[in-house]
Automatic annotation (TrEMBL):
Residues 288-371 form the Ig-like domain. InterPro entries: Ig-like_dom (IPR007110), Ig-like_dom_sf (IPR036179), Ig-like_fold (IPR013783). SUPFAM superfamilies: Immunoglobulin (SSF48726). It comes from the Eukaryota. Residues 265-292 form a coiled coil. It comes from Synaphobranchus kaupii (Kaup's arrowtooth eel). Pfam families: Ig_2. Signal peptide: none annotated. This is Ig-like domain-containing protein.
Amino acid sequence: MEELQGKDACSTPRENARSLEGQKCDFPLYYVEQDKIPDLDSWSEEEIEEGKANRMISEKELRDRQKIKKPAKYSQYPILIKGTTGHYVPWGSQDMLGLVERLPDIHEGAGKWIRALEEETMGKLLAVGDLKALLARLLGMARMEEVLMKSGLQAAVNTPYLDGASFDQFRPAMWRTLREDYPTKIDPKSLKGEEVGDTVNPANYLHRQLKRWKLETGRNPEGDELMTTLFRTSIVEAMPPPVRSRLEDVVGLNSKTHREFCDHVIHAVEKYRKEEQKLKDQEKETQRKLTQLQLGELTKKQCDITEGSSVNLTCRSNANPPVDRYAWHQIAGARSWSKRPMQNISFPSIQALHGGQYYCTMWNPLEQEISTTVY
């Protein structure tokens, strides 16, 4: 530490103190080489005050030191230390090759690719280097760098400078670029309408189809005239013929609002189902009466049966779907038991012990039917 004397040195800034060596001052002024100033973090309050009094540190240096704060948030990224330099390792905790195989082809539409990637990496912290490695694998280095430039990531091109930075802040711009460069290709086969089914709520069906179209095309089917026409045409063509015919008779169906279109479809489906159920009930009643008639004719022949005769009992039904299971039952006195699980029951030589009441039960996949009793 050198003592500088001189009156002019009293008001001279510390950074110019070296040029004032040899001048005389009314009080001692100390000058310390910059590289010899101790680290302020190791100084006590008394030493700091003494340093201020001796002009070894300035008020500005002290204020700057006091303004230093710890980071508000810490983040961790996959960093590999090599020697004294940190190197980011892309996909250090996940199989990138396996991920590439599970993702859809980005050239068929970035919307599907982005959705699948976010599902695969949900809960994982992605860095810029992860996307660089993934896009380089899929698109090649040159195309990957073009995407980075267009997404505002010029600082990440040809340098690992931003590889370890969080990708979240660049996500919106990157996804926007990819969607612009790789628009969704519409596959008519995948957009073919699905059948509504006999028990599905038509309102739920329409909601599900609208959602499916949004996922397949990346666009709102009701967002423009062309998409609206394609979407509604696929819905109408997927309906049963009576419903389709009724909807085709509606004037200007494709020009109506989404709510009005849905109301027309729901009404047509519900009306068709009511008519179908009415026809099924009528057919069921007709089959029941026919079965009773057949068994009634068999009952009329019972008076001609004598002991020792051969008797055959047959159970028939015109049910739709066809009957696939039969069973004959005998009632003798207060007892009832199943005789045989078959359509026909035969008695080569009828005896008194065979006396009683007989009836058959029939089943198809939808219902069960019981015949009248034969004596």
